[in-house]
Amino acid sequence: MPTEKPKKVLVIGSGPIVIGQAAEFDYAGTQACKALREEGVISVLVNSNPATIMTDEGIADVVYIEPLTVDVIERIIQREKPDGLLPTLGGQTGLNLAVELANAGILEKYNIRLLGTSLSAIQKAEDRDLFKKTMEEIGEPVVESETVTTYADAERVARRLGLPVVIRPAFTLGGTGGGIPTTWEEFRAIAKGGLEASPIGQVLVERSLVGWKEIEYEVMRDGAGNCITVCNMENMDPMGVHTGDSIVVAPSQTLTDHEYQMLRTASLKIIRALGIEGGCNVQLALAPHPAVGLPQQGGRAYAVIEVNPRVSRSSALASKATGYPIARVAAKIAVGKRLDEIPNAVTGKTLASFEPALDYCVVKIPRWPFDKFAAGDRRLGTQMKATGEVMAIDRSFEGALQKAVRSLEDGGKSILWEDPQWLDHGALRMDRLPLFANDRRLWAMLTALRRDVDPGEITRATGIDPWFVSKLLGIVRMERRLLKEPLSPALLREAKRMGFSDGSIGTLADRLPEQVRELRHEWSILPAYKMVDTCAAEFAAVTPYFYSTYEQENEAVPDDTAKALVIGSGPIRIGQGIEFDYCSVHAAWALRECGVQSIMVNSNPETVSTDFDTSSRLYFEPLDEEKVRDILENETTGKSPPPTCVQYGGQTAINLARPLSRRGMPILGSGEEAVHIASDRKEFENFCSRLGIPQPPGAGVLTQEEGHAVAERIGYPVLVRPSYVLGGRAMEIVYNDGDLERYLREAMEIGGGHPVLIDKYLEGREVELDAVSDGEQVLIPGIMEHIERAGVHSGDAMCVYPGITLTPAERDAMVDYAQRIGIALGFKGLLNVQFVVMPPAEDGAPAVYVIEVNPRSSRTVPFLSKVTGIPMVKIATKVMLGQSLRQQGYEGGLYPARPLVAVKAPVFSMSKLAGVDTYLGPEMKSTGEVMGVDFTFNAALAKAILASGMMLLPGAGVLLSIADRDKPRAVPMVRRLAELGAPLYATDGTAAMIASLGIKATVLTRKLDEGHPNVVDVIQDGTVKAVVNTASGGRTVLRDGFHIRRAAVERRIPCFTSLETARAAVNSAANGMRGVSILPMPEYLKGPRG
Amino acid sequence: MSDRACLVLEDGSVWEGRALGARASAAGEVVFNTSMTGYQQILTDPSYGGQIVMPTYPLIGNYGINAEDAESRRIQVRAFIVREHCAEPSHYQSRETVHDYLAAQGIPGIADVDTRAITRKLRERGVMMGMVTSEHSPGEALELLKQAPPYQGTDYVREVSAKEPYEWTATARGPGAERHIVVLDMGVKYNILRILRAKGCRVTVVPAWTPAGDLLGRKPDGVLLSPGPGDPALLGYAIETVRGVLGRVPVLGICLGHQITAHALGGKTYKLKFGHRGGNHPVRDNATGLVHITAQNHGFTVDGDSLPRALEVSHVSLNDGTVEGMTHREIPLMTIQYHSEASPGPLDNVAIFDRFLDMVCGASKARV
Lengths: 1090, 368
Description:
The complex is a heterodimer. Chain A is built from 36 helices and 40 strands. In chain A, the strands form 8 sheets. In chain A, strands 28, 29, 30, 31, 32, 33, 34 and 35 form an 8-stranded mixed beta sheet that branches. In chain A, helix 13 (441-450) crosses helix 15, helix 23 packs across helix 24 and helix 31 packs parallel to helix 35. In chain B, strand 15 and strand 16 form a beta hairpin. In chain B, helix 8 packs across helix 9. Chain B has 2 domains: 4-147, Carbamoyl-phosphate synthase small subunit, N-terminal domain (Glucose Oxidase, domain 1, 3-Layer(bba) Sandwich), CATH 3.50.30.20; 157-367, Rossmann fold, CATH 3.40.50. A 10-stranded mixed beta sheet of chain B has the order 10-12-11-13-14-19-18-17-15-16, with helices on both faces. Chain B has a 7-stranded mixed beta barrel with strand order 1-2-8-6-4-3-9. Chain B has a two-stranded parallel sheet with strand order 5-7. By secondary structure, chain B is α/β, with parallel strands linked by helices. The N and C termini of chain B lie far apart (68 Å). The chains are: A alpha/beta, B alpha/beta. At the A-B interface, helix 9 and helix 15 of A face helix 3 and strand 15 of B.
C-alpha cells in the first residue's frame, strides 16, 4: 500500500551527546530534514542540543531548541499541528519519546501518524518477549533467554542456563546497565543494576554466546515491500563486546558466500516480519564452527541477537562506509517514496534500490575516554564506553587498520605503542598482558606477536578470528623487515601499502619522518586517491568522496580553481565534541558561498562534515601531518598548495598549524604565531603585560624547589597544569604543599622537560566570550557567564548568555581586553577569551583577569551563534578570505544583547563509566550539552536543568554533604529546599549546620562500615532522589565523597558537586515550568511579544 | 622462476604484479565481477568459459577453498586477477588457498595490480581481450594476444557442457520426488541441480547438443535451459533443440538459456559494453512492480525490440533497462537473465524454481 504523503512532519532529535548517542544522529536528522524538504514536506524539528547542524537555520523548516519531554513536545504539537511524526532518526531518545507520546494518547488526540515504523514494529523489536515470539513465528533462531522483572526470577533463569549469562536491560541506550557476569557475586550486582537501569524494570537473562562472530546487516525496506541490504559489517571483537566498543570491518572478511547470504536472507526476513518502512539494523551471532551451533535450533549455526528498528550508529557507519545515505533514504521512504523512485545521489544514474558493492576495506575503531579517566574500568562488555569512533578506508585491511589507529589521536599512541607495564626488562609478561576485552587489546595482541607468542594462543585468549590475528602478524613481520633490511623502494612501497606512517617507518628504519617522506618523493611512492562510489567503479560517480591508498591510478585529479582545505576535528571525545564538527561544516559552506571549493578532511564517520554533499570534496583520512600534507600536495595545481583552515577542527586542527607553516604550507587566517603566543606561558604573560591586561599571578617551573617558591609567593590555592597542553588536560587545583609535591613529581615524570605552570587560583566568577577578529576590528557577538565559580572546567560549567551579574564596567573591561588582544595579534578568525572576575576594588574598579585565550573556534561558538543570530563561522571564514568585518556590514565591539536568555548546561555519561569520579574540577568530564532558552533567566534555567536531567522531583528526599567553607553560602539553598518540603538527609557536620537553621535533617554516617542506613544506603534504596556533595581541599577529601557520588550516578539521580549548580536546580524546582515559553528559535530572537 | 606476472590488455596497456596460481599463460576476455564474496563459485562457474575474471573486491581468498562451494567439476576461468591474495585463509571448511587451487588446475593468475583502475578502463572502453602470464615479457604477451582466438565468435558451450547425459543423484529432501526435469547443459551450475533435487525432482543432465527428439524421449515433466558462456547466436544446435521443446513441456530458461529461447522464437541478442556481473543487480518484476536484488553474470543481452508479440518482457534491469526475463502468452515458458540459483549472490529469487515447478505440476495435471 503506498503511504499517503504527510504535509508537516515532526522530527525528534536525540538531545545531548552521551556515550551511545553521539554525532551520528545529527548527521541522520540533518539528512532527514533535507530529504523532507526535497519531498515538499514541512519539517518541524525539536532537539535540546544547540551544537548540532540540524538545529541550524535552513535545515528544518521550523526549529525548536527545547527540552525533550512529553509535555514540551505536546505543546509543540499544539502549536504546529503536524500530521506525521518521524520517530526513527533521533536515536533511542527519539524512539522512546515517540513511544511515550503514543502511550500517552497524544498522537491519537492530535491525529498524528507515526511514519516509517509503526508502534507495533517498535514494540516487536524493542520488547524482548515480543521480539523472541516474532522470531519464532518466522523461524529465525534466537538465543535461549528469559525476560524477568525481579531479581529472584533472574537468578532462577541464570541457575538454569549456567554462568556466564548476558544481562540486557530493556529500553536503555548503549546497553546501559547490562553485563556478562561470570561469578554469582557479579551476577547479583549486574542483575540488580540492570533492573534499575531499565525504565520498565525489565531485563533479559540470556545464554552467553561469547566467542561467536558478531555480524551486522543494515537493511532498508519501503512501503511496497522492496528490501535491500546496504552492507554487512563484521566485528573483529567477537560476541560479548558491545558493537559500539568493537573494532568493526566492512564488509565481512571471514564469511563464505553461503554464510553471508544466509545471514542476509535472515535480515531481510526480519525487516519484513517487523514491517519496518525505512532502515533497520540487525545484529547476528555466527558460530565460528558448526560444532558450536545451538543444539535447540537443530544445529543452526547462527542466532539473531537484536534489531534496532531505526537509524543507528551502525547505519551512520554503513552510510559512510558505502556512500549509501541511509537516513536520507529512510526519510523519503517514511513519506511514501519507494526505493526504486529514489535516485542514488552518488552515481546520479542508478537508484536507491540496489546494494552497494565495496572495492575497499573499512575499519572502525572506537575512541574511548580513558585518556581522560585514568581511574575508569577499561574492561569492555555489553555496556558501551566509547564516546566516539574513527573510520578509515583502504584497499587492504592492514592499511585501513593502521590509518584508523592514526586517526584515534590517543596521546600519540601509534601502532608500535606498548605499555611498559606489560614488559619486564623487555621480556613479555603474559600475566600482565590485557588480552581480555579492553581498549588496549589491539596493542596487546601486537605486543604478543612481536615476542613470538603463537597466533593460535592469541585466538584462544581473545576469541578473535585467526584471519585478523594473521593480518596483525603480517604487520609485525613488516616491522621486523623494516628493522633489519635496508630501506629499498620495494620495501618502502610495501610498508606504505600496509598503512605504516612515515613516523612508524622512521622509528623502525632509524630515520626521521621527514627523511622517510623525502625518500618517498625521490622514489615516487605517493598515495593515490580512490573514490567511494557505492558501485565498485561499475558506474561513473559524481560525488568526490576519496580515500588514499598506495596504488597506480589517482582519481582525485585536482581542479584548477580557488579552493581551501578544512581540517575536521576527528573522533568525538571529551573536550572535543560535536561543536567542532558544526564549525567545520559551516566553514565548508561559507567557502562555497564565496566561490571557493571546500575540501574537507576528517576521520569521523558519525558527522555531518563527512557527508558527501557537505563539501566540494571529501577526503576520509587521518588528521595527521603526513596525510594532510599528502592531500595538500595532491591538490596543488599552481605554485603553492591551497590554504588550510585550522581554526575550526578543535585541538586536532590547530595542532597542525605549526607543522604546516613550518613546511611553508599557507594557513587561512591566523595560525601558528597566535597559537604560539596563546599556548606558551611566558610569551602569553609578556604579551598580556605589554597590553596592560591583568592575569592571575603565576609562573612556569621546572623543579620542586621553584614550584614551592612560586606557590609561597602567590599563595594557595593554586592551579597547576603542564605547559603546552590545552583543554584542561591533567589540570588540578592544589591547596597545600603535600599535594603540590605529589603533582609536581608525577608531572615531571611524564612531562619530559616541559615546565609545569602554577597560577594563582582565583575563586571568582568565570566569564568567556567568542569573537571574530579581522585584525583591525573585533566583533564580540556576546558574553557568557558561568554559573559555577572558576575551577570547574568551562566545558563542564553551566553558562548564561548574556551575563546576569556583570556590571557594565566589568563587561566593558572584557570587551576592551578582547579587542586589544585581537588587534595586537593582528588576528584573523575566531577567538575565544576566558576571564575570572573578582569582586571590584574599593574604588569600584573592575577586577577582571584573562585566564586563557584560544586562537580558534571554541565549544561555545554554535551556542553563541544560535542565541545571537550571528553566523560566527561564516563571518570568520569570510574574514580569512579577505573580507573585513566592515565590508561584511559588522562593526567591532560588543553586539547588542538579544532580548532573550539562554543557558547552556553540560551533560555527562558517568553512569557508563565505572570507577570514574563525577566531581567537577578543572579536568573536563562532560560529553554533551543542552540549551534552555526563554525570555527570563529563571525560565531558561529551568529548561536547561530539565533538559540535562537535573530537575529535582518535588517533595523527594535530598542528601546534603557540604564542605565547611561552602556551608555559609549554602544556607539560602537549604532554606529553599525545606520550603519545598524536601526531606533532608545529611552527614554530621552538614546536619549540624542545617539544625542550626531550625530545620530538621536526618543524620547519616559517611562511613560505609559503621551501621545503617549510611549515605550510600539512602541513595540505593531510593530514599533520596538528589545529592549535593561539595568538597574542599586536595585529593584525600575528594576520596571521601567518591562512594556517595558514584552511588548517585549509578542510581541515575542528579548529583551536584558545585553549590552554584545545586542552587540553580533548587531554584528551578521552586519555580517549576510556570511561565516557560515553547517557541521556535527565531521567535526568541525577536523578543517577547507586546 | 620469477614471482612476477603481468596482465596485458588488447589496448596495449600492461599491468605488472605478482604471479598467482600456475606459472603459465592464458588469454581470454577480461571481465570484472562486483560480488564481495563467492570467489570459489565464480572460479568454477562454466559461464566464465573463455574469460579472465577479476573481482572488484580487493581481498580474495580470505576463507580459502572448500569442498562445498564448487559450481562445476573444475575451474572454468582462463585466468584470475586479484588486488590481494590471502595466503593464510581462515575458515573451518577451508582446505587450501586460492593460489594452490589455481596452481593445481594449471590456471594462471596475477595479484597486486590496481584492479580498480582496470575496472574503470573496462567500464569506459568496454571489455577486451587480455593475457595473464608469468612466462612471457609484456611485449611477447601482446604479440601472443593478437594470435589468441577472439572471445567473440568462439563456441565455449561445447567445451563446458557435459559430454554424456547423467542423473544428479544427491539426496532429495523435498516432497514428492516424482517430477522429472531434464537440464540442457550449456554450462550448468551445480546449485541449479542441487535446488531442483532439494525440491524433490528427478534431475537428468543432457549435453547441449542433444536433439529435441532425444530430449523429449526422456519424458521430462519440465525442461531447464541452463546458463553458459559466450555468444548465444553461435549456438544453432541448442536453439534448434529449444524450438523442438517449446510448447511440448514447460520450460525455464536461465541466463544463456533465456537468450537462446529468444533466438528460438525469432528474437535477437547483442553484446553489452561491459556486461552485468555481480550480486547486487536490481531487477523489476513487471507483474508485481517489486524490485529484486539478483546475481548476474552475462555479457550478452536480449534485444527487447526484436521479440515477437507472443513473448512478454516480465523483468527489466533497473540499472540499464535491459530485458531480464520473459514469459510466453500461450505456452508454458518462463525465462530469466539473472541467476535465481545464486551461488554466489542473494538468495532472494529461489522462488523462481517454485514458480517453474508450479508450472510443471499444472501442465502434468492438465495432461492427466
